[in-house]
Amino acid sequence: MQEPIRTTTLPDGETAVEELSGFQHDDNLGRDLQIIATVKNCFQVDKNFRQEAQRARQNPEIHGREKVRPFYYGLVAAYSLEHAQLTWDLRDADWSFSALEPYCIDIFDNLIALCGGNYVEIVDMENGTKRAFQHPWLRQAHSVQFSGDGQRLLVSSSGFDAIFEFEVSTGQTCWEWFAWDNGFDQSRLGDYYVRTRERGALLAAQGHQVVVVDDPSQHELGIPTRFCPVHINGAFYDRDENVLMTMFQQGAAIHVDKATGKATSIASGLVNPHKFHPRREGGYYVADTRRGELQLLGDDFQVVRRISLREAPGQIRSASLTEFLQSVSELDDGLFACVDIHRSTLWLIDANVKRYRGVAFPREWSVHDVALNHCLPTMTDLVPKLFGRVDARIDTEGSKWISHFSTAGCENATYQLDAEGRTPGGRIEI
User: Fold this and answer.
1) At residue 12, does pLDDT exceed 70?
2) What one-character-per-residue DSSP string does 326-360 give?
């Protein structure tokens, strides 16, 4: 069993909050950069309504769905940040492609890694080959990252609260870590989730409610977010290539020593955080998601700055919705790209000089992550050959359509949204 972990809290009041609205607007900020955005699906408006309804349930502070839902097609698109907005019809995209619920992308030399749904794959953009990485406990892959030498691939499996590391050359698993096996097995609703019947019997004998998950094949989409003890939504290497992990349900981030498996708390007091990641020039950053803050930390993991979006321009969709800073990426030293889902805006924030600029995206887009685009020039030529096509349009009635095609040209799915951005009749379970 995991020993009790040390906690370093991120308390309100000890570090002054800097409101983005107090920064200077800079219309030229980041215009020389290019990004790749992963859009996991185009049903964010429906999702907002669902989240509003869930605020009325018992224990509304425990975020997430109560049952797993199907995966839907989304898209990956490359843009120059010279644009003031990312358009629905993708006309300003340098390239785009269809993918089944894509969450995260990473690039190393000529290799591109993509994860989403229940899959992880690498594409070699020099020779056009594509390889899949598999594990029986891989569900809802939320993050992917190459090691510093490009020899290994780190993946978080949110559906089963696990982290896997694969050898890039062979596809074999070279390291794995399960939160439930290391002391993080009790959900916020009180139930314990275990992977062995022996552990389940022991806990049941102590009077606990137990869910035994010893056969991952019986849980095709993993455990629902609301019931998952941790819902690991990001795993990234630190500078020694141990692991930094965000714990969505616990509002915390931990450090896992790969050699021993020991977990140490490095941040707590967050609200459904995402993406604890090293900064380019020292220190770390994390998205304090439902508090709407970008937290900057020193090498000792202590908070040194808190930049808040709560007074940012634009309106959250409903007063009953919380802030939701989905993800943060450092594009250059001190220049952060912040995905503000409920304002449908990608905020570019230069923390060094306190400047910012907003790039709007369609309110229907569930943008999950943004990466700096430094792909090979051949990317534009190879995308149509290696990935499915995505077509998007707006008709004369204001309805929005998006169609997804396989590499063979077969139609995988077509989704229609009304002028309000919702699926007609609520046919989509989001």
Assistant:
1) no
2) EEEEEEETTEEEEEEGGGTEEEEEETTTTEEEEEE
